[in-house]
Each structure stands twice: as structure tokens, then as C-alpha cells.
Design goal:
Elements lengths: L4 E7 L9 H9 L12 E8 L11 H7 L4 E4 L2 H4 L7 H12 L2 E4 L6 H10 L5 H7 L6 H6 L2
Parallel strand pairs: 1-2, 1-3, 3-4
The chain binds iron/sulfur cluster.
Length: 148
């Protein structure tokens, strides 16, 4: 039997009391950013908040997760959809890759439809960079509505 791939999830601290329901459901269903694991066993081997702006825990949490076998860090969808989205998400991605040599995926569960509606009206994601950042969790409309 092949070993499961170990992932760690880092969430935006404004959602620190989140019970993780959408992330766990989407992992189980292999939806959103977890669709890349369709044919793989996955184990969540780390879960932490960023520590609050400016995200000081991102400096250390990946190291602890790596010691626990984590090879891929997911920056939770809340960092993308929050009002406002995290302005440091690209930096976190590059830092974790550079410092720890770990893969980083932006997003966890699919973007809920109501967030897409509001951010579209606000033109939040009207740039090439943001289009790249939301791509793994954009999903289809039916799936997004299931996460409202
Ligand atoms: S906006 Fe970014 S740095 Fe601030 S709490 Fe959320 S994830 Fe952390």
C-alpha cells in the first residue's frame, strides 16, 4: 500500500475559530484545490492559523509540519475570499517554497458562490495574479453553491 501524501493547512487568523467543516468536506470529496488528489490517499498532518496579520506563524509553522512529514502546504480558501483577501498570500507562497522546499497550493475548499458574486462586483480578482490565485478553487457553479 502506498503511503498517503501528508498535507498541512494554514488558515487566516480571522477564521481561527473555524471548525474546518468546508475544508474537511472538500478533502473528502476531492473538490476545490483538493481535486488534484483524486487518485491519492491524503492525510492532514498539520493545521495552524497564520497567527494574525502580518502572518508571523507562517515563518515557523511549516517547519513543524515538515518534521511531521508534510510535503504540501495548503493556504486555506479563507485567505482568498475574506474581505479583504490576504494581501500577503503570494509572499507566503514564495517564502514557504524557498525556505522549506515544500509545495504550496493556494486554496482548500471551493470558493462559495456568494463570495464569487461579491468579489466580482468589487473587481477584487480583476488581475492576472488573482486569476492565478483563485484558479485551483474556482470550481463550477453547482459546486460553489454547495459551499454557500
Ligand atoms: S489577512 Fe493574511 S496575514 Fe492577516 S490574518 Fe489573514 S492570512 Fe493572516
Amino acid at each position: 500500500m502506498t503511503e498517503p501524501i501528508k498535507i498541512g493547512i494554514i488558515i487566516c487568523d480571522r477564521y481561527r475559530s473555524c471548525a474546518g467543516g468546508k475544508c474537511l468536506r472538500s478533502l473528502r470529496n476531492r473538490e476545490g484545490a483538493f481535486s488534484v488528489y483524486k487518485n491519492q490517499d491524503v492525510e492532514i498532518a498539520g493545521y495552524a492559523s497564520c497567527g494574525g496579520c502580518p502572518g508571523g506563524n507562517v515563518e515557523y509553522a511549516p517547519m513543524e509540519m515538515k518534521k511531521n512529514g508534510v510535503s504540501v502546504i495548503h493556504l486555506a480558501t479563507g485567505m482568498i475570499v475574506g474581505y479583504p483577501p490576504c494581501p500577503r498570500i503570494r509572499y507566503f507562497t514564495e517564502f514557504i517554497r524557498e525556505k522549506y522546499g515544500m509545495d504550496v497550493v493556494v486554496g482548500t475548499h471551493p470558493i462559495p458562490e456568494n463570495y464569487l458574486t461579491t468579489h466580482t462586483a468589487l473587481k477584487t480578482w480583476d488581475s492576472k495574479l488573482w486569476q492565478e490565485l483563485i484558479a485551483p478553487t474556482l470550481s463550477d457553479e453547482e459546486t460553489r453553491k454547495a459551499y454557500d
